[in-house]
Every structure is written in C-alpha cells, then in structure tokens.
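To whoever is on call:

I kicked off a structure prediction for a single chain this morning and the downstream step that reads the tokens threw a length-mismatch warning. I double-checked the sequence; it's 70 residues and nothing unusual in it as far as I can see. Pasting both halves so you can look.
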Amino acid sequence: MRRSAVSTERLTYTVLEMAKIMGLGKCAAYQAVQRGEIPSLKFGKRIVIPRAALQKMLEGNGSNPAPGAK
C-alpha cells in the first residue's frame, strides 16, 4: 500500500502569530487586517492569514510602499 506525502506545515497563521512574526502589537495587527493591509481570510468569527499571501506581500518588489514611507 502506498501513502501520499502530506505536508504538516501550516498554511495559515492566526492574527496573533502574524503579529509576532512581523513585530506588531495585537491592536496594530488587527487594525492592519481590518484595513486590508494584511491579506486575510475570515471563517465565521475566525480570521486567518494565508502564509503564502503574507510571504508574497513581504517579498514585494517595493512598487507599492506603505503610506508615508520614503
């Protein structure tokens, strides 16, 4: 019998996990998600941050700097 390899690596982070990774406070993280600055998915009341979308955002080419950034 052959078993397929299933990755145990998580595909999403909680908002608090993402905040820790990015060095943000809890309130700042939730506000960034609410403003759409951080990509997120909502399942009922649960908000998750897709790892791939966060990584893509962080690896951005710099063509869309944050407001006020120089």
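Update from on-call: the warning came from a stale cache, not from the record. Cleared it. Sanity check on the structure: The CA atoms of residues 43 and 49 lie 11 Å apart.
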